[in-house]
């Protein structure tokens, strides 16, 4: 499957999970998980969707291994960040445990963004 389609489908998975969490928060009148909800949707759905569009529109002939690595890095980091934020804001694990994990996930999301910028810079299209 092409990377643009993979980003798109992963993005929809986050959209469904994040909106599901939003509906749960609204229905339960308990908004404790809103930071997790916001980042599942923004880092998971919106950023994946933007990466899908970048692949479709600007990244013709990008180096396959680097582009593949960038995809897995963003998806892994977004997943760890999403699960970590849910566990943190649900109060299931303390910040002392989750802080380093969330820190690593954040750096992963950041490096994936830098790599995407690099891929766009190097792309002729
Ligand atoms: C089924 C759709 C959705 C529902 C039911 C929903 C529900 C909620 C609820 C209940 C809150 C907490 C409000 C608060 O206490 O301040 C919230 C916050 C938030 N939602 Fe959603 N949401 C939905 C879709 C989305 C989407 C699609 C996005 C972005 C792509 C989004 C982004 C945010 C953000 C950024 C916040 C935090 C706002 C703040 O800083 O106060 N939501 N949402
Ligand atoms: C490396 C990735 C990211 C990190 C480490 C990060 C970190 C944070 C932190 C620490 C907060 C404050 C949460 C609080 O109120 O306690 C926050 C809020 C927010 N961030 Fe991010 N963020 C990241 C990516 C993004 C992206 C990509 C978007 C949008 C596309 C975004 C949109 C927001 C919004 C709208 C809020 C206010 C709503 C909320 O408090 O959840 N963030 N972020």
Which characteristics define this entry?
binds protoporphyrin IX containing FE; 0% strand; 125 residues; mainly alpha
Structure description:
The protein has 125 residues and is an all-alpha fold. It has one domain. 84% of the residues lie in helices and 0% in strands. The chain is built from 4 helices and no strands. Helix 1 runs antiparallel to helix 2, helix 2 runs antiparallel to helix 3 and helix 3 runs antiparallel to helix 4. The longest helix has 28 residues. The radius of gyration is 16 Å and the shape is globular. The chain starts with a helix and ends with a helix. The site of one protoporphyrin IX containing FE (HEM) has 10 residues, from helix 2 and helix 4.
Tell me briefly what this model is.
This protein is mainly alpha-helical and 125 residues long. Helix content is 84%, strand content 0%.
SSE blueprint:
Elements: H1 3-28, H2 34-58, H3 64-89, H4 95-122
Helix pairs in contact: 1-2, 1-3, 2-3, 3-4
The site of one protoporphyrin IX containing FE has 12 residues, from α1 and α2.
* Order of SSEs: HHHH
Radius of gyration: 16 Å
Strand residues, percent = under 5%
Tell how many strands the DSSP assignment holds: 0
Instruction: Please mark out the parts with pLDDT under 50 across 5 or more consecutive residues, or reply none.
Output: none
Mean pLDDT value? 96
- What is the distance, rounded to the nearest whole angstrom, between the alpha carbons of the first and last residues? 21 Å
Number of helices: 4
Number of domains: 1
Distinct ligand kinds: protoporphyrin IX containing FE
Q: How can the largest sheet be summarized?
A: none
